Every structure is written in structure tokens, then in C-alpha cells.
Amino acid sequence: MSNKDVPTQQFNSLESWMRACADACRPELAQRWHETQAQDARSGQRRVHYLSMEFLMGRALRNALDALNLSGDFDAAARKAGHEGSAVLDREADAALGNGGLGRLAACFLDSMATLGLPSFGYGLRYEYGMFQQRIQDGAQIEQPDDWLRAGSPWEFARPEIRYTVGFGGRVEADGPGSMARRWVPAETVRATAHDMVIPGHGTRRVSTLRLWKASSTMPLDYASFSRGEHAGAAQQRLQAERLNWVLYPDDSTQAGRDLRLRQEFLLVSASLQDMIARHLAEHRTLDRLGDHIAVHLNDTHPALSAAELMRLLLDEHGLSWDEAYAHAHKALSYTNHTLMPEALETWPVRMLEELLPRHLEIIYEINARFLAEVAAKFPGDAELLRRVSLIDEQGERRARMANLSIVMSHYVNGVSALHSDLMVETIFADFARIWPERFGNVTNGVTPRRWLAQCNPALGAVLDKQLGDQWPTRLDDLGGLVGKGNKVSPTLIKAVQAAKRSNKERLAELIRRELGISVSPDSLFDVQVKRIHEYKRQLLNVLHVISRYQAIVANPQAEWVPRTVIFAGKAASAYVAAKSIIRLIHDVARVVNSDPRVGDKLKLVFLPNYSVSLAEVIMPAADLSEQISTAGTEASGTGNMKFALNGALTIGTWDGANIEMAENVGREHFFIFGLLADEVQRMKNLGYDPRLYYEENARLRAVIDAIGSGQFSPGETDRYRALVESLMNRDQYMLFADFAAYCDAQARVDELFRQPALWGETAVRNIAGMGFFSSDRTIREYAERIWRAPLNRA
Ligand SMILES: *Cc1c(COP(=O)(O)O)cnc(C)c1O
């Protein structure tokens, strides 16, 4: 055996270890799945069906071992075989069937649904390629396909017997005189086959199911043409079907608008609804009480075609009247809005719907006609109102508005944080809130404390077990007990939490050294911003502060600087030029800062490539400072903010999204809040915002912008950041300049506190203690009680 073979050998053995462990979990998962299905069928309770184009699951092995109480056995067995347990776990590929927050939320929700014993299914698509893998070449992002199924998934249960036919295109025929029923004759059909992942609950035998659809051709291979050597023609059918689940659309906040995306959305909707109806008929024989038995939740508008497809199935396939069908659909459907940004609001050209889903377009028109008649009766003479709320945008190319469709057909619509839900009814959905005020509400997001604390941060988990007992992962309010009588925090507890943080920082420093060859000091303040790269999230504001700090250090290297390691990670959508330019700038600035001998440990800047759930699990526990600095009014909730605080990071953040509720739960005095409020942002925009005034008045800001603009960080290409600088100087859509001074002041307050380790440590404990509210268990309880009216069966 040559030297070159050694790593391969080891790879194989760790990989087979990982697979063997997954295989060992499967029979128990399958057993629990059957028990849960039998219970739910017997009880006849309402089931929740969570429809989402994205489920950002990450790895499953540690979570399964944890849920099955096998973690201890696993660690011991791995050690005995001479393996590091974590090295075995690292061999599993992330299931990255999502882009960011929206997909990760769906994954946290499944964990809580299982844990709370909610009868539930998640429905999604089985993408062959998930979120792209990010590589960095010469400081620039390169996308590579994420071939996560290369070696097959150890967690899938293929269900070849569970399959449905999904149509596209064709025409609509009348079906009997005077009847609402029409017959859709699709031009093409594909078959959707179920592939299940069992989602185990914690502290319960109950599970949830993630059912992913795989599309394949309904046509048998055209053997005759194949035999004639016409391989291309024979393969055409297959390709046409299979391309449906090739790849996840990698854009997190603009609408794709492509034919293939519309087909993917309909595949999800149609297969899932057929599955629900088939299960309902098997259990109840009639559709009389369908709306009482199924809750269908739309994770954003991506599955909004559910409204039309459910109506079509009930009208055309099952012969219900319009009123009956509508009553079932309205009882079943509910919708969560995730963004107020206009570029993310989904609309589809009527022309595309006409071609691809002609019957659904008819149904949308009928829903619209009845809805507009109702509005006209309620608000007579308001033609402008009708134009604005119509399901069809008649200006320019006619387009169907998926948010409007979702609101009209749902019995409940929610936003994802208190501020977001308020803004939702004050701005984009103000007309609908006037029509149906009782339909709108808020359910603040949460994250699962199992993955995001117990599993990713065993060092802190052990401290909590000792202090609070071991029930906190399913009773997160217990964290409040970290603050003792008389509002005191025990110094021993602070020390123990700090020791856990220290070991997690060492682990991350080691990862940084291995990945980037950069040595960072675990004594420095780990200042972290990890999330999708987006202008509204303002990674660029963070970079401006880093440059300013660099300039100040160089000007005065002898001063008592608090050493900082500024850590970024995040992917930019492949076509998002401005976001990619920010990644490039981070690398350019990092090269200059990290190699400047005057700076040393006082400041280091690193960008960890390929942000993912698994990378987040290493980063979150090691952060001292969490950067949540979106322009107020733009971040719907954020969930990264919650993961950080749960792991004892302090937050520097704007008064935006769930930051607000976090600050209120923790105590504002333990948060670094800065910047304009949402209504101040709006007022300034209305008055005419001029970023140049800030540039001219603030010498510190001017020095930073001039350094970028002059090419100081890109000496080989001095105008590399011209577009970026011009966009800031002329428009600054997200008001970085307006918040720059306040941000720098807040960073100075961070330094001040970090100089007092005991006080910083106490503040960290108070932050953890205030996070009980942000468990996704609380979120799912609220959905179950208020929206789904479905039972929890926590055994
Ligand atoms: C939590 C999470 C997100 C969401 O982060 P935000 O800071 O809320 O935008 C995105 N990606 C991954 C991998 C996550 O774990």
C-alpha cells in the first residue's frame, strides 16, 4: 500500500462506520414510524401537512442517536474502534434541500412537531442537487453542484407504492351540463413517488414524516424507437420528467419566474394533496369532513397553487359543489408570509399558467370573481381597492399574485415576528387587513434547542444539565433558572459557561487554521456574521467597520485594542452581482489586514467557505458577538440570531425582526442595540435620503469609502469596487451610511464590556437565560393551538 492510499483507506472506513450507524438506527425509526401512523389513523385527529419547497435538514445521525438514546453507546463504540466520534459524524453529507432561514425553519418545525407529538407530515421535493457548494477562488465565489445523493442517503425510505400522477399543459373540457365540474386533459404527465425521512421526536416514541417527491416518467420506455437506434427520442420522456427534481433553485429572496420552477411547485402541491386525500378516504371513506381533518400550511407562497389544486381535485375528481369544496379548502389552508420585500413576492404570468395549468387558471379566475364581488359589496365604489387586491395584476403583462391567492383562500395568515407581522398588515397586506382584520396574526419563529444547543454544544449542555437538570432541551423555559434569587448570577456558573465557550472557540480556531491556514487567537473577541449574503443583511456595514478599525489601529498601534477576530460565512445567489462583490471585498480586505505586521492579533478577518447547517453547528457555539444588523424593517425574523444567543453570544443588532423580542426577553441593557428604527427608515426615505451628506460630515466614514474606492484593497484592479461605492454614494438603499456612526459607537460599547470578562460572562448567561421563549416547541404550540387546531400528543 502506498502512502497515497492511506487517507482513502481511512475515508472508506469512517464512511462505512457512519453508514453502519445509520443502518443501526433504521429499524427503530421504522418501528416508531409505524406506531405513530397506527395511532394517528386510530385517533382520527386532525393532521398537519407542512408544505415547503425547502427543508434545510443538515445531517441526521447525531440527532437520531440522541432521539433514540444511543449517543452514549455510539461514542463508546467509536472510541473502541479507534475513531473520533465527531470524525464519523462528519462523513455524512448535509441534506441541504433549502437556501437559508426559510428552509431551516421548516427543519426546526419538523423536529418540534415530532417532539410535541403533533400528527404531522412535511412535504417537499427530493432534489438530486441541493444548495450549491461554495468554493472560493482568488477571493471570488465559485458554485459547484451539491451531489449529496452520490452514495445514496442512508435515511431514505423509498415508498414505491405511494405514487401519484401529476399533469401539465393540455386543455379543459366541459364535463356535464350546468355542472361546475370540468375535465382537465393534460398534455403531459409525470409520476411522483414518495421518499420518506423519519423525523424522530425527543423524549417520545412519536415521529414526524418528511415526505419528498421524486418525479419520473409515466411512459414506459419507447422500446420500438430505442431499438431503431433513436436513443435521444426515447430518452426525451425520461429527461422531461426527471429534470423536475434535478436541482433546488438557489435564490433565497428573489422570485425565479422560470417554467421549471412553476412545474416544481405544482409537482409538490399536486402530489401532496392527492396523498392527503387518499389517506383521508382510506381512513374516513367520505370527504364530508375533509376540512376538519387536514390542515395544509403554506410555507411562503411557493406552494400557493395548493388553493387551486385542492379546489380542482374536489370539484373535478370528487364531484363536490363549489361551496363544499371552498369550505374544505378554506378550513384547511393557512399561510405564513416571510418577507415584505417586493422583489420576493411571487407572481406568475397568466400566459404561463394558461399554457401549463389551464384548469387552475380557470379556478383562480372563479375565486377572484367571487372574492371581488364580496369586496365590492363591502366597500362599494372603490375601484382602486378592487384593482389592488385582485388575484390578477392587470398592469402590463397580466400576472397572478400568489400572495393574494394565499390570503383569500386561507383562514389564517401570519408573519414571523411581532414587528414583521405588524408591518405586514400596515404595508403590503393593508387592504386585506381592512377586509378581514381577524385573519391576520403573528407567530414568532423559534429554533430547536436539541440541534442548536444540546447536540452542537455538548460543553455548554453539560453545564446546563448540572445547573437545571436534563429536561431543558424539551422545556426551554427552564433556562430562566440560570438567573438566581435576587436576580443574581452565580460566579461559578459564569466560570463554567466561559470554560465551555473557550473550548468551543479553540475548536473553531482549529477549523479556521485547517481550512484557511490562518491562525487566530481564542483570546480574541470572536465577532461573527454568518447568513446568506444579501444587501439588506448589511454584511457591507460590518466590513466598513472592520476597515475603519484597521485604519485606527494602523494610526495608533500602541493603544490598548481589544483583539478581535471577525468571522464571515455565507453564500451569494449565483446571479446576485452585488452580493458576490461583497464576498470579494471581504477577501481583499482580509488579505491586507491579516498580512499587515502592525496589526497582528489586534484584528483578523476570515471568511469560512460553504456556509451550511453543519458549519453553523461549529460556529454558533464559538461566537462571542452575533452580528444581526439588517436595516430596520427588512429582516422578517431571523433565526440565526436565536441560535447565537442560545449559545451565549451577545448580540449587536438593529431594532428589527425577532431581535426586538429577544432584547425584550433578555433585557435591553444586555443587548447592543443601535441604529434607525423601522419607522425612521421609512420617514427618511420619504423625505429624500442623501447618503453624501453622511460621507461629507463623517471623516471616519469618508476615509473608509475613499480607501475602497481608491483600490487600496484591490491594487491590481483599482476600480474593482467602483459600482459598489457608487451605489452607496448615490442611493445607499439599505442606509449603511445613516447607521454607520451608531454602529461604530455600539462596537465601542462591545469593546468596553469585553475588557471586563466577568461582566461579559454574566451578560452572556443572562442572554442564555432569556432565550426560553425562542424554542420552536413554543412556536409549534402556538401554530397548533391558534391556526391548525390540532392536538399535541406528548407521551
Ligand atoms: C439558521 C440558518 C440560516 C438563517 O440565518 P439568518 O441569520 O436568520 O438569516 C441560514 N442558513 C443556515 C445554514 C442556518 O443554519
First-residue to last-residue Cα separation: 54 Å
Number of helices: 32
How helix-rich are the residues, as a percent range?
A: 40-55%
Number of strands: 24
Task: Using the alpha-carbon principal axes, give the shape.
Answer: globular
**Roughly what is the average pLDDT, rounded to an integer?**
95
What is the makeup of the main sheet?
9 strands, mixed
List each distinct ligand once: pyridoxal-5'-phosphate
Which stretches of 5+ consecutive residues score pLDDT under 50? 1-9
| Radius of gyration computed on alpha carbons | 27 Å
Give the CATH topology of the domain at 45-52 and 95-103 and 128-192 and 214-441. Rossmann fold
Architecture of the domain at 45-52 and 95-103 and 128-192 and 214-441, CATH level 2? 3-Layer(aba) Sandwich
Look at the structure and give the CATH class of the domain at 45-52 and 95-103 and 128-192 and 214-441. Alpha Beta
Strand order of the largest sheet: 7-10-11-4-1-12-13-17-18
Strand content: 15-25%
Protein structure class: alpha/beta
Corresponding CATH superfamily of the domain at 45-52 and 95-103 and 128-192 and 214-441: Glycogen Phosphorylase B
Protein name: Alpha-1,4 glucan phosphorylase
Pfam family, one: Phosphorylase
Family: Belongs to the glycogen phosphorylase family.
EC number: 2.4.1.1
Task: Provide structural commentary.
This protein starts with a helix and ends in a 7-residue tail after the last helix. The protein is of the alpha/beta class and 795 residues long. Helix 8 (259-284) crosses helix 10 and helix 21 (539-555) packs parallel to helix 22. It contains 32 helices and 24 strands. Among the domains are: 45-52 and 95-103 and 128-192 and 214-441, Rossmann fold, CATH 3.40.50.2000; 513-757, Rossmann fold, CATH 3.40.50.2000. The strands form six sheets. A nine-stranded mixed sheet has the order 7-10-11-4-1-12-13-17-18. Strands 21-20-19-22-23-24 form a six-stranded parallel sheet, with helices on both faces. A three-stranded antiparallel sheet has the order 14-16-15. The protein is globular. Helix 25 links the parallel strand 23 and strand 24 (672-673). The chain binds pyridoxal-5'-phosphate. Residues 100-101, 104, 531-532, 611-613, 616, 638-640, 643 line the site of pyridoxal-5'-phosphate. Belongs to the glycogen phosphorylase family. It comes from Piscinibacterium candidicorallinum.
